[in-house]
Amino acid sequence: MLLWTRRGFLASSAAWRAVSAPFSEASCDVLIAGASFGGVAAALAAADSGRSVILTEETDWIGGQATTQGVPLDEHPYIEDRGRTKTYAAFRARVRDFYHRNYRLTPAALNDPFFNPGAGWVSACCFEPRAGIAVLHDMLAPHLSSGRIRILTAHRPVAAPTSGDLCRAVSFLDARTGQQRSISAQYILDATELGDILPLAGVEFVTGAESQQQTGEPSALEGSPDPLRQQPFTHLIAVDYHPGEDHRIPKPSSYERWRPGFRNLVGIAPSGGGEIQLRMRRLFAPDGPTYASCIWNFRRVLCASNFEGLPSDITMIMNGNQYHGGPLAGVPADTARARLQQARELSLSVLYFFQNEIEPGYLGKPGYPGIRPRGDVFGTEDGLAQYPYIRESRRIRAEFTVLEQHFRTDLNPAGPVAYKDSVGTGGYRIDIHEPAPGGRSSQTLHLHGKHWTQQIPLGALIPQRAENLLPACKNLGVTHVTNGAFRLHPVEWNVGEAAGALAAFCLDRRCRPRQVRSDGTLLADFQRLLVARGVQLAWEKPEIAKSYNSHYAEVPGWYFGEARYRRP
User: Fold this and answer.
1) Burial of residue 6 (number of CB atoms within 10 Å: 0-12, 13-18, 19+)
2) Residue 16 above 50 pLDDT?
3) I need a surface site. Which of 395, 399, 426, 540 has the fewest CB within 10 A?
4) Distances (CA, A) of 214 to 222, 411, 475
5) Which residue has the higher pLDDT, 506 or 279?
6) Binning pLDDT at 50, 70 and 90, where does residue 436 land?
7) Is 457 in contact with 51 (CB distance < 8 Å)?
8) Is 337 in the same domain as 414?
9) What is the pLDDT of residue 23?
10) Which residue(s) pair with 156 in the sheet?
11) The total number of structural domains that make up the chain
12) 419 and 293 housed in the same domain
């Protein structure tokens, strides 16, 4: 846990009060509940503006889906030069530099201008959680030293007292001491993975799937809305591979319950018992080699062939272990805890299946006993991530809600609806892990190519009633459908950055967020501030929204980052 120090510059009187307060109390200008990927971006933006920040997190790490949950960056294909903020671009550059500084790269990787540490198929910049955490702490370091930012890990929000339309403070339970701590702030940002502050503070919110009657979206539910229809979550597990060794785990007690769901997972007998391949469908790599992936290469975070002296890849198991047993938001706490435990058992069951039963396996026999869980990758004992990957959160009832028809190509053939109050951009396709109508494919594939790249409207960050609480993760004003495009790493970072900058701007101008949106002068000034930070507010021209993989997977000669296969 990183604590504030009396040494160094203190940004405001609130910062001094936070340092001087009793252990059970603290205060600051901006409280950010949840050190998610968006939460870290929000902290950076607010502190850059000179504001004191307390950033809390219920796990041991900061970084959310990029680190604690182990999800390699889900990005659109244009990410290398557009559709991102300057700080997000800096994060990616620093990740690559982390490996250049600390690892021995092969000559091919060393000279690769598009170096991808993990050579994963989901992103041009796949990396280990430890690299992401190191980079995030580097980016926050000046503010941590000065005392502008204080990070409190193992802190879970338990109460959020309000007065009228203002949330005055949030109380947290310190898992290490069992004590409660109350933190007061002028602005409170909810950057938790599930929007946990919203119900605690009595802020109006939505869960699950809206109906077509409510939103008019072509892809919304026909009939009644369903608050419990939320995207499944996944508890990732990190593994490497050592052929000829035996790292099999005990059979999970619930294994037989999950085993029928693994029927589409198959192996490829590697030549001579060497390189491991697990697949669900076929994809192709450059220069002739045929890769069968979706499992090993797809979310690989360390590609051994890009480095000297590394014995194995490290990859994230994220196939076959989506938990469809029910949502976590809007259910009793004991139900949510039970589902979290079941999701852990599901992931361990997938690992057991890979180690013992997948066919063909090592030397043509069932299973790969040499697949080893890597608990050290996450700081856990069993290789499971510290927290599951959450695809859908509670969402504020916002002044403005982003709807599918705003950027649907068949409804807007010239390009998406433009938002005059834009605070950023997104470029990912709508990715919904549900069956499509008729059940013939997934909703993601059914909607592929039907949407433009997007903007993030300021109105989607402003609750309809609450005055000093802002969303900074996946809990902005989107629908069940549009969340499928707004939940990915670059957008979450942009949302957090905009929210942190907005809180600081409002404190500087002594105004409220909804005034910024409604007052043309304030809005123009705020947007100029964002542009000065390097936030892109609009796309130069309309682009079709895609995932990185969906854009490149079928392109002949696609180079995905394994340097030994890169053409000169």
Assistant:
1) exposed
2) no
3) 540
4) 10, 18, 19
5) 506
6) confident
7) no
8) no
9) 54
10) 173
11) 2
12) no
| Domain that includes residue 520, residue range | 397-546
Q: Which residue has better confidence, 482 or 555? A: 482
Return the closest-CA partner of residue 265 out of 290, 242, 287, 295.
295
- The two tokens of residue 39 are 């939460």
Residue 120 maps to a domain:
no
> What letter would DSSP give residue 481?
T
Q: Which tokens go with 183? A: 């933190």
Quote the CA–CA distance of 104 and 107 in Å, as a whole number.
Answer: 9
Residue type, 508: D
Same domain, 375 and 402: no
Q: Is residue 270 part of a domain?
A: yes
Residue 323: burial class (beta carbons within 10 Å; 0-12, 13-18, 19+): buried
Q: What does pTM read for this prediction?
A: 0.92
Give the end of a domain, one of 340, 364, 390.
Answer: 390
d(CA 74, CA 70): 11
User: Which residue from 328, 317, 501, 323 is spatially nearest to 424, judged by alpha carbons?
Assistant: 501
What's residue 568's pLDDT? 56
| R_g of the chain, CA atoms, integer Å | 23
Q: CA torsion angle for 158, 388, 41, 170 (degrees, to 10)?
A: 0
Residues 316 and 252 both lie in one domain: yes
pLDDT at 554: 74
Greater confidence, 503 or 6? 503
Angle CA 368–377–117, to nearest 5: 85
The pLDDT score that the predictor gives to residue 441 is: 75
What is the rounded average pLDDT for all residues in the chain? Answer: 90
Tokens for 256, please give them: 């037989």
Amino acid residing at 332: P
> Which of 390, 409, 441 is where one domain is finished?
390
